[in-house]
Design brief:
Blueprint: H1 2-6, H2 8-14, H3 31-44, H4 52-67, H5 73-89
């Protein structure tokens, strides 16, 4: 039971009820590719409870926050850059 509770965030990322994510999207090295994938997933989803932008950004921020200290600093920088790319794709920055 402890292990199950400990890995809840991985389960959310894998089995999100709002977005169907491409395999390994958060491990990719190209921020624009990550942003485009999240945008496609959010816009295709019929289960999301928010706008596509908010759903995509929420999933990205959730992953960054939950990966925490286990996230490689270089990959964290890529994911932070993906946030900027996502804003650009939606005309918000």
């Amino acid at each position: 039971m402890i292990n199950k509770d400990r890995n809840w965030s991985a389960r959310v990322t894998r089995e999100s009820d709002a977005l169907d994510l491409e395999e390994g999207v958060f491990t990719w090295r190209d921020p624009r590719r990550i942003a485009l994938s999240l945008k496609r997933s959010a816009e295709a989803s019929r289960r999301r409870k928010s706008t596509p932008f908010r759903s995509a950004m929420s999933m990205l921020v959730f992953y960054i926050n939950r990966a925490g200290r286990h996230l490689d600093p270089e990959q964290k920088a890529i994911l932070e850059a993906a946030k900027t790319e996502l804003r650009k794709l939606y005309g918000r920055g």
